[in-house]
Amino acid sequence: MTKAGTSHTTDTNLRRTAEQLFAHELAAIAKDDERARPAEWRLSPQAVVTYIMGGTTKSGVEITPKYIGNRRLVETAVATLATDRALLILGVPGTAKSWVSEHLAAAVSGSSQLIVQCTAGTDENQIRYGWNYAQLLAKGPSREALVATPLIRAMEQGTLVRFEELTRMPSDVQDTLITVLSEKMLPIPELNDAVHAKRGFNMIATANNRDKGVNDLSSALKRRFNVVVLPLPATLDEEVRIVVKRVGEIGGGLELPKIAAADQEIMRIVTVFRELRDGQTLDGRLKLKSPSGSLSTAEAIAVTIGAWAEAGHFGTGEIDAQAMAANLVGAIVKDPVQDKVVLAEYLETVVRDRKPWADLYGAIREVM
């Protein structure tokens, strides 16, 4: 398996940003993009959609798809960013919310690095601004002593800012954003001043409501977002295509040992995930219990990457049942009691009866 859509680089960073990985595509699109662009946008809305969904530029440069799914959803997201309403990308875990958010920021603003990763410990100072206490003690409150957050930098530069997992943040901290989204300004009471958003500023937030510990958005904050819901892949083939593509990109970026193409093994991983996730076999003939985890597309990608590393470093150079087994068990069994029962039942009622899957049945049984 080889890396798809990017060229080799001597960059030693473990992970490169979207604008670094696909710089040649962004440059090619921009060169041929003759449509009108909103203020401070690097590309026109139509070109942003081409970058996300894939296509071919006028000069013949092939643009790889970054998102495999409904084009209309991406068009709605891009159109929202061209207005004064913020964008909330909603979906269950693993539906490429963060991935789409990063690529939208890269295409629109040329940078995806103005980001706030929301957690239960995120406070108002991480959203609004902080202070350089040495400057504060020496000179008192001043703009020089103020430490700008990604939100302030985006407002001043007229670019996009990303808030990842917005509902992980406490509700009272979330509401700090209401004034920014409504008035396009952030008051600084200590200085009797305010930061006013430059044209081109907007916000992309992502959230899901399946995980435990989620803080719902207030109705006042919800009204200030246009919501786009990213669904799970509609079909088995679509999900397999997504996993194959992302595994190729990630594995190549990690410079994992080259191995034989593993499309058939990926098909088995995705089949297991879809059947357990949906609570029934693909043909609908047998009802199944579902484990406590989400078994998302992102987790299928992680399982395949783990199997690739195992096969490349310790196996035969080919992903097989032995390389997949421990990674599958680790992804499925989050609750050591409940999920182990679910997996054992699935093995006995489904996997054991599929003759081509005899190797997978034995390998999983060996590591359970």
Give the secondary structure arrangement, pairings included:
Layout: H1 18-21, H2 23-32, H3 45-53, E1 55-56, E2 62-63, H4 71-81, E3 86-90, H5 97-109, E4 115-117, H6 124-127, E5 129-131, H7 133-139, E6 146-148, H8 150-157, E7 160-164, H9 171-174, H10 177-183, E8 185-188, E9 193-196, E10 202-207, H11 219-222, E11 225-229, H12 236-253, H13 263-278, H14 297-314, H15 321-332, H16 338-351, H17 358-367
Parallel strand pairs: 3-10, 3-11, 4-7, 7-10
Antiparallel strand pairs: 1-2, 5-6, 8-9
Helix pairs in contact: 3-4, 3-5, 12-13, 12-14, 13-14, 14-15, 15-17
Walkthrough of the structure:
The protein has 17 helices and eleven strands. The protein is globular. By secondary structure, the chain is of the alpha/beta class. The protein has helices at residues 18-21, 23-32, 45-53, 71-81, 97-109, 124-127, 133-139, 150-157, 171-174, 177-183, 219-222, 236-253, 263-278, 297-314, 321-332, 338-351, 358-367; strands spanning 55-56, 62-63, 86-90, 115-117, 129-131, 146-148, 160-164, 185-188, 193-196, 202-207, 225-229. The protein has a five-stranded parallel beta sheet with strand order 4-7-10-3-11. Strands 1-2 form a two-stranded antiparallel ribbon. Strand 8 and strand 9 form a beta hairpin. The protein has two domains: 18-229, P-loop containing nucleotide triphosphate hydrolases (Rossmann fold, 3-Layer(aba) Sandwich), CATH 3.40.50; 236-367. Helix 3 (45-53) packs across helix 5 (97-109), helix 12 (236-253) packs across helix 14 and helix 15 (321-332) packs across helix 17.
